[in-house]
Amino acid sequence: MDRQIRPIYESLDTNSNKSAILACNKVLKKQPNNYLVKALKALALVRSQKVEEALLLCDEVLASKPVDDSTLTAMMHVLRGLGRHMDMVTMYEDAYKQQPANEELGTQTFFANARIGNWKAAQQIATKMYKQFHDDHYLYWSVMSAVLQAHDPTTPETLRTVLLKLAQRLLSSSATPSFYNADRFHLHITVLRELGEYDEAYELVESENGKIVCSSNLSCEELRREIWKLKGLAKEAGDRAEKRIEDAKDRNWLEFLSVLDATFADVETAKAEIPERIVKTQQFFGKIAEEDGVKDRSSPLALLELEKRARQHELATDSSALNSLLESYFQSFGGKTCCFEDLKPYVELEGEELTRWTAFLEKQTAAFASVPDIWRYINAQKLLRFNLPVSALTPEAESQRAVTYLDAYLGGLKFGRDLPSYDLQPVDDLAILSTQAFVNAWKQTGDESFLYNAAALLEYALVRSKMSYQTRLHLIRIYRLLGAPSLALEHYRSINVKQVQNDTLSHFILSRASTFSLSSLGDLTYTSECLESSRIYLSNSEETAEFIVRAFGGEKYSQIPDFIVFEDRLDNSLQRDLVKMEHVRMRIAHEPINSELVDMELIELKFIFDRIHHDNRDFDILANYEPRSVASFNQQTEFLEKTPGLGWLWVFLKIYIKAFQLASDLDDTVEDKLLIGDRPKPNFDPETKFPLEERLAVKKDEEIAELTPDELHFYEYASALSGWLTPYHDYTRPPPSAVLAEAAKITEQKTGQTLKGLEIEASNGHGKKDEEPPVVTEPPAQLAQYFDVMSKRFKAVLESKGLPQELLHIVTLTQEAFLLFVVETTRFKTPSVVKINKLGPLSQHIKEIRAKATAVLSEISSALVSYAEQEATVERRTEIVAACKPIIHESGLDHDFVLNVAKKITESRKQIADGVGRGMVRVCKTHA
Q: Distance between CA 189 and CA 200 in Å, rounded?
């Protein structure tokens, strides 16, 4: 038997699924009831995307209630691939019931429940195994499961304390003390903390064994600090921290914060004592700073934090102290890259303090003798810029500053001449400073020439620092503003984002990505980028549950809550669903609009609509050196001045769910019967309990606030369109029995077997409807007017020579409005449907609106193609080069370099404008 099965495993290991299926068929001819081979065949079918055939085999194997390890393991992979995690739990539970003495089956049943977060069942299984096999780690599995069940949102509030007390009782019954293992000790303290048993927890962490565990385990040490804080032992923690700083030479910043917290403990009730404590703390930190010199910056920073807190509580006595501390810190650490970030929280100065600080910083010149001199100058410029008032930020002054920063940048490049190509130049931040000064000037004037200067300068900086992700992120923002998406995408791909960065950073390139998509022309570059960035979510759903299982296996209890939070934040990521929404918008422009597309997207969008979302996007990674008196660089370079968030997502979900609902024959009963895999975990937001139709109709101000004016107009158009067509769709939609019969027929054609679990009523076609068809009403005026209004908007922006991003935004929304119209009217294109349901007048209205939309799109297309041709001319490039005159130098950043950048910008602009224009013609022909 092993000889027959080995080729199947080898084929599966090498992803030769076709060979694996053939090998399985060969064995099944001789042994038709071999459930292991059937499970392996089902696995090969799942991997080959032959889901219907796999489902039949899968159900057959499950019905046999397997108990052998090989079949169970194969079925685990099959069920995971089908998303049937509940069936996996049932399979293992059935196997364990048949062999209750099998410890391995019990363990796998526990793991199956842990994978899906079914902590109640997991706790019961672990308790049963502890009583049966008397192994301590099953006891701790039970405790951990009880704690996780207490944290589960489905657990009633009254039951949570009961569960935690159960966990505490289990811990006290353990024969082995928890301090024998750091993670068991961590779990024990966590349970006591959750119950508010701070005294008992304090005794444990301060016991001799507890101190040993905390000193060697960071998680336990962090918990110890929290217990001290919860017990109100701020002063004692401060005394302990002082000893560690002085005697053990511990320079952990948390120790310094403990001293500061102790200094200001009970500040409201013991205000008279605080000045004396402040003096004492100043002397202590001053002494440590003197001992450390420039070796460590913790104590000088602690002195600054002390002064800041004293001012907040109006307990500062020396008005010049802050200036003195800032100057002292800069003199000691101004040559380090971290100086600006260290001092930023303390330099929001006014009046005489600002004047003195500015005079001090202005003494730093651009005469560089070493790399520390460069950083001293850079930090001085960042700190000076941070406090600039609005009156000093005129376009002329900003241009002059940008050129000054650029001159210093070019002068300092010699210090990085011998660095390896993968190293960053010490002067890179001067290029960033110059860029942000140019962008601030553009923001005030709207003059594109400032953006060209910034782009050319950054491109030159990249030649010298190829690995500078910060430079590339700045270029991505600027190229999107300039309507050069291919260049932005090129830089994004060069950053080489990996793993979870696809969730935190993909917003830089995929925010409103459909504006730059050429999917209507068959170019799937941005579509594939959406799919590529979404792989992390699939990998999270497959792998993070396994990490949780491994953490249980290795008794790493302190890591399990973090894994669960990580899994939840990725599963319910806002960016994941923003990208999904963009992908849907691109997909309808490229693929045929049929029932398969509509039904699949409808089900998925409804799932998204029921989620609670976590915003994991990282905006802070983009360096900000703009003055505090103006918007940050991130805000200044927002695409169309609006960043899509939860409100934007909600609006577009409502638009597309409603559109796909009208176009689809699925209702909730049909959807439930045809859905493969488990439904997502329920959301406990009260709003999700309202009927879907009510939720789709709600319009909230906070959602609308995230839309651009053109998107708001599109939303109003979409609402009017769906409102007009809903009665006609409801009347003509076939009954659920007819839809299920059609699904069963398709499955039988594919697999040769009938679809199980469906009770299909006998039906003779659509049958005659009892009620009369709804009266056809005139379409809302705004449907046809929408295309006229957008045509006028397009012409106005074109004539005013606005940024290409705005032009493309208008154009792609107009095309999307047409595609939405196509989605919602496809049902009425079939003459027989119109005739049977007596909807001839409706069909005529639809033809008129389609003709109007097609004419407007054709007109815009022609103008856009002409615009594209003008962008790629020699004259246009010459204009860009002339605009970059302030930054052209005789060194590498010369005329030829800038000309090359101008060529790339104009070519990219031409490509997108021409592609979108020609794509519109193709869309019109496809859906004529």
A: 9
454 close to 462: Cβ distance less than 8 angstroms: no
Q: What is the identity of the amino acid at 918?
A: R
Calculate the alpha carbon distances from 537 to 320, 541, 579, 580, 594 in Å. 53, 6, 12, 11, 27
pLDDT tens track for 902-914: 999 999 999 999 9
Given this model, what pLDDT does residue 718 score? Answer: 96
Tens digits of per-residue pLDDT, 482-520?
Answer: 999 999 999 999 999 999 999 999 999 999 999 999 988
Query: CA 420, CA 212: separation in Å to the nearest integer?
Result: 45
Question: What string of DSSP letters covers 525-547?
Answer: HHHHHHHHHTHHHHHHHHHHHHH
Task: Say if CB 378 and CB 429 are below 8 A apart.
Answer: yes
Mean pLDDT in residue range 735-761:
63
Phi, psi values for residue 916, rounded to 5°: -65, -40
Long-range pairs for 540-548 at CB < 8 Å and ≥24 separation? 540/566, 540/567, 540/570, 540/571, 541/567, 541/571, 542/80, 544/570, 545/114, 545/115, 545/116, 546/115, 548/114, 548/115
The C-alpha torsion from 150 through 156 and 162 to 166, rounded to 10°, is -40
Q: Can you tell me the distance from the alpha carbon of 434 to that of 458, in angstroms, rounded to the nearest whole number?
A: 9
- Of the candidates 850, 631, 873, 609, the one whose C-alpha atom is nearest the C-alpha of residue 721 is 850
In whole angstroms, give the CA distance from residue 692 to residue 682. Answer: 14
Model pLDDT for residues 812-852, shown as the tens digit of each residue: 999 999 999 999 999 998 888 888 888 899 999 999 999 99
Q: Which residues of 291-318 are buried (b: 16+ CB within 10 A; e: fewer)?
A: ebeeeebbbbbbbbbbbbbbeeeeebee
- Contact assessment for residue 59 and residue 754, using Cβ atoms and an 8 Å cutoff: no
* Predicted confidence (pLDDT) per residue in 432-453, tens digit: 999 999 999 999 999 999 999 9
152: which DSSP letter?
Answer: S
At residue 324, the 3 state secondary structure works out as: helix
Question: 């060194």: which residue's tokens?
Answer: 891
Query: The tokens of 636 are what?
Result: 């200044």
3-state secondary structure 499-510: CCHHHHCCHHHH
Residue 603, judged by CB atoms within 10 A of its CB (0-12, 13-18, 19+), counts as middle
Q: Rounded to whole angstroms, how far apart are CA atoms 562 and 539?
A: 17
Cα angle 172, 175, 179 (rounded to 5 degrees) comes to 75
d(CA 257, CA 237): 10
548-552, 742-746, 785-789, 797-801: which range is least confident on average? 742-746
User: 423-436: b or e for each residue (b if 16 or more CB lie within 10 Å)?
Assistant: ebbbbbbbbbbbbb
- One-letter amino acid of 700: K
d(CA 865, CA 727): 40
Is the predicted pLDDT of residue 756 greater than 80, yes or no?
A: no
Neighbour-count burial for 879-912, b at 16+ CB within 10 Å, e otherwise: bbbebbeebbeeeebeeebbbebbbbbbbbbbbb
How far apart CA 248 and CA 245 sit, in angstroms, is: 6
**Closest-CA residue to 271 (of 223, 207, 318, 314):** 314
Question: Contact 628/348 with Cβ under 8 angstroms?
Answer: yes
Using one digit for the tens of pLDDT, what is the confidence trace for 31-59? 999 999 999 999 999 999 888 888 889 99
Q: Which 3 state secondary structure label does DSSP give 426?
A: coil
Q: Cα(739)–Cα(716) distance, rounded to whole angstroms?
A: 32
User: What would the two tokens of residue 859 be?
Assistant: 């007109």
Nearby residues of 147 by Cβ (< 8 Å), 6 or more positions away: 163, 164, 167, 187, 190, 191, 194
Is there a contact between 105 and 133 (Cβ–Cβ < 8 Å)? no
